[in-house]
Amino acid sequence: MSDSAPVLSARDLRRDYPMGESPVHALRGVSLEVAAGDYVAIVGPSGCGKSTLLNLLGAIDRPTGGTVAIRGEPVERLSDRERTRFRLLHIGFVFQRFYLMPALTAGENVELPLAEAGMSRAERKARARELLTYVGLGARVTHRPTQLSGGEQQRVAIARALANRPALLLCDEPTGELDAHTGAEMIALFERLNADGTTLVVVTHDEDLAAAAKRVVHMRDGGVVSDTRVR
Amino acid sequence: MLLTLVRASLQRHRLRTALAVIGVGVSAALLLDMVMLASGMRESFRSLLEARGFEIRLTPKGTLPFDTDASIDSAGALMAQLRADSDIVAMSPVLGGQVHVRAAAGSATAVAIGIDPAVQGDYEVRTGRDIAAPDQLVASAEFLRATGARLGDTLRVEGGYDAQMRTVTAERRLVLVGTAHFLYMPANPRAVAMPLATLRALTGARGDPVSLIMLRLRKGAIADSVQAWIAARVPPVTPISTAAALRQVDQRLSYFRQLAFILGSVSLAVGLLLVTTLVTVSVNERLGEIAVMRAIGVATGSIVAQVLAEGVVIMSAGSLLGLGLGLATAHYLNGILSSFPGLPAAIDFFLFQPRDAWVSLGLLAGCGVLAGAYPAWRGASMPIAVTLREEAVA
Ligand SMILES: Nc1ncnc2c1ncn2[C@@H]1O[C@H](COP(=O)(O)OP(=O)(O)O)[C@@H](O)[C@H]1O
Ligand SMILES: [Mg+2]
Question: Is domain A37-48+79-216+223-229 given the CATH code 3.40.50.300 in the classification?
Answer without folding.
Answer: yes
